[in-house]
């Protein structure tokens, strides 16, 4: 269900990590943009061809390490045209006394190619019946969904345009804690082109977003509802991440997160080529986490992760798994949540045979599952 201003999902921090309530205010520092000359360490801009056949501007090397930011006007001028506003509509029935009604949502996106491919978040466009895009010059377009992937919270949409300004792709793997970070997006769904600055606060932060465990960049650049799907850029204006979450439940500010661009590139290519991610192994089931403490009804169900749907002909179906089975262990590891099951899946590839134990009608059943690609 969509909010009027698409809100970045809240995350669930790992229990071993406590969040400090102390607000850290980082000084905004001076950027010295050096000429691409001299000796070792100079950055070389290149054009590469992605697996989707689209030419991508790519900047290699560590851009921004040790730089300080004070004036980001050049970066904003370079990157601003690459970030778009996204608005969505979805027809919802729900339990409204008015029957069906239209909900509106808003987010951001980053131009990936001159001919109109745009990267955003899955949660920005999920369930949308119509998608509209506004570029920095005010031009509005209708967009079509190309592909989406809930596991990485990435999506690609397409507008019928040419001569757009695509973002220059950077290297998130070259980042260091303390590097400059510039976020550009559409906060509140009505302030498109907003620029906020900060630093990279942490690398490889393991965060659970809507039951999906992700490894994200952390930044203290201001992230607000509507920034989802927007760009996180380095001190040279290279795209290093796609903004997708912030911590808002505790009132603590300065805790924003972005999907690292290095890991996103393969997903984006697959979405453009196939409309979905086909290289990832799957059980081809829908899972549900049940907790008696969160249930409003008394039940004899045990806490744990349950199979609530089995795709006909999929890996689980061929192994004899059924709707209502509670998964006890997977690949020899005890599991209690769908996030734990998905984390184990990420360590495997299509064709692997993995053991699973389930509880059914009070009995423990052991099966062997040969993993397949995700079914449509």
From TrEMBL:
A Pfam family (short name) is PDZ_2
Q: Please name the GO terms of the biological process aspect recorded for this protein, alphabetically.
A: proteolysis
Gene Ontology MF: a single term: serine-type endopeptidase activity
Q: Sorted alphabetically, which keywords does the UniProt record give?
A: Hydrolase, Membrane, Protease, Transmembrane, Transmembrane helix
| Gene3D superfamilies on file | 2.30.42.10, 2.40.10.120
Full protein name: Trypsin-like serine protease
Q: Quick check: keyword Transmembrane in the entry?
A: yes
TM ranges are 24-45
Q: Where is the PDZ domain?
A: 304-362
